[in-house]
């Protein structure tokens, strides 16, 4: 069992390079199913969710060849529809993009209902509404989502009742090869939706309006393979920006698109952090105290829900009472119990956390309850006095490449240890 150990209270100095975006990588990797050809995907983050997605594609019959650590060649010509292994697909939320991609290419699909982080109920009704509008029938059979069509898929208008990233992506995937035109209204506007549309358009699709709330897709008869580079991960970047603000010091976060980080930058500045935006890097520096602030998470371009736990740590380190409202998920505050171990005072009432900032935290033994919550525990450990031990770090490794190495390079006293069954420990990184 691996854990992360941090001796906190050291400011961070130096630069951290950002990897490709997890939430783009998964739809693009599964989107290669539609190309039925050879694609080369660059700037792929080497994280467990990506390894898992590549493994699933291999099991489905794709030829997958890593050209280097962050570049993969995938040939999906001989994929077998419905062959994604049940357990592997269940272990990853993003596996539900197989449904849209298989439906688009084969007119049918069978894939395990998705797992992923536990934020309360994670419905897929809007995905199904979109698939059904395009002419598919859906049913749940033994834990599988099964989609079928009698005739070819046809374009139609779909109005999403909630702004859903996953549903927007899945409907795009299903619609690119459908006959006629599809319009997705009240679509999500996240940068990774634009990234997926750019990838599919490079393959020959005809998608316009990605990044706005109305997306138009003109069906095309086939796609072909391309070489495509994934955009930088705004949540990874935001996590290190908050880490620098929490621990203090001066960190340059490189390989970013500053526009994607505007909501995070604005809140840091409001808290008294110095943030300088360059063309493809951001400098975050803090030496003075942090001011209280109110934050509400919302779909893009609002403050990202995937930065909720990391931001909460910063509010604990501010002086005064802040509020943090969760505007996307019904249950994203499970991690606050872990933060209490650091001496944080947080009252949660459904989707609102009231945080009594005390300007400091003390090291603790805690667990990562999900991916972003795990990153928040690491940030708390960097800022806290004394030693912090974070367990269940497999959650963190699903989404952060070399988090220990990247933080150590900017002066953090952080390491990964393996704890044996007999409680013996070994340093592993
Ligand atoms: C994706 C990300 C996740 C991130 C979220 C919001 C992946 C694998 N996951 O999740 O990390 O937190 O975007 O940026 O890329 N909803 C419905 N019906 C649906 C679908 C969603 O009611 O059919 C609701 C959800 O309960 C939630 C909200 O819509 O309240 C947003 O969900 P959605 O944007 O779909 O999130 P995911 O795509 O699952």
Topology of helices and strands:
Elements: E1 2-7, E2 12-17, H1 22-35, E3 38-42, H2 48-59, E4 63-68, E5 71-75, H3 86-90, H4 97-106, E6 109-112, H5 125-133, E7 137-141, E8 144-148, E9 157-159, H6 165-175, E10 181-185, H7 191-202, E11 206-208, E12 214-218, E13 227-229, H8 234-247, E14 249-254, H9 262-270, E15 274-277, E16 281-286, E17 294-296, H10 308-317, E18 319-325, H11 336-340, E19 345-349, E20 352-358, E21 365-367, H12 371-383, E22 387-391, H13 394-397, H14 403-408, E23 413-419, E24 425-427
Parallel strand pairs: 2-14, 3-13, 9-10, 17-18, 21-22
Antiparallel strand pairs: 1-22, 1-23, 3-5, 4-5, 6-8, 7-8, 10-12, 11-12, 14-16, 15-16, 18-20, 19-20, 23-24
The chain binds uridine-diphosphate-N-acetylglucosamine.
What keyword list fits this structure?
five-stranded mixed sheet; 14 helices; alpha+beta; 31% helix; UDP-n-acetylglucosamine1-carboxyvinyl-transferase, Chain; single chain; 429 residues; 2 domains; four-stranded mixed sheet
What does this protein structure show overall?
There is one protein chain. By secondary structure, this protein is α+β, with helices and mostly antiparallel strands. It folds into 2 domains: 2-18 and 232-427, UDP-n-acetylglucosamine1-carboxyvinyl-transferase, Chain; 22-229, Enolpyruvate transferase domain (UDP-n-acetylglucosamine1-carboxyvinyl-transferase, Chain). The chain has helices spanning 22-35, 48-59, 86-90, 97-106, 125-133, 165-175, 191-202, 234-247, 262-270, 308-317, 336-340, 371-383, 394-397, 403-408; strands at 2-7, 12-17, 38-42, 63-68, 71-75, 109-112, 137-141, 144-148, 157-159, 181-185, 206-208, 214-218, 227-229, 249-254, 274-277, 281-286, 294-296, 319-325, 345-349, 352-358, 365-367, 387-391, 413-419, 425-427. The mean pLDDT is 95. Bound molecules: uridine-diphosphate-N-acetylglucosamine. Uridine-diphosphate-N-acetylglucosamine binds next to helix 1, helix 5 and helix 6.
